[in-house]
Amino acid sequence: MSTIPAGTYTIEPSHSEVGFTVRHAGISKVRGQFTDFAGELVIAEDFAQSSANVTIQSASVDTKDANRDGHLRSADFWDAENNPEWTFVSTSVDGDAPEFTLNGDLTLNGVTKPVALAVEFNGAATDPFGQARIGFSATTTISRKEFDLTWNAALETGGVLVSDKVTITIEVEAVPRAAQA
Predict the structure, then answer these.
(1) pLDDT at res. 89
(2) Domain CATH number, residue 117
């Protein structure tokens, strides 16, 4: 079993990614990511007391298609002008490293719902410059409809353009908070 060093850590966006995958037209998957996010992880001595708090700027979406990104930012989807920040605030931890569940409240589009992230601790290391680092991977699946993200278009062949199910994937590298200066 891997042991996560206790402490307060800050997510390093340059070594982290918050992404999503959604089925398009019932035949392919479209991926996107957010380029502006921040967060803090508190790894407690009693691991069950650990926590995470993350904020995502919803307008920072990047799906490699400027028109689609603009549509996602619009009132048809998450209305980034009126819902500029999305948040995840943990409520509990089930299990222990290296694989555990991080439960929390996810707020998207002004709607808050509980979610469970399946998390894998990827390890702790010290980089060549003496900086301690920890890494995690996490996934969850949400229903767009539960967050009032209901825009869609019917297809002539049946079905809809955008699936309800969205898979969220997270890769995090974090450093001790004191190291951020």
Answers:
(1) 98
(2) 2.40.128.110
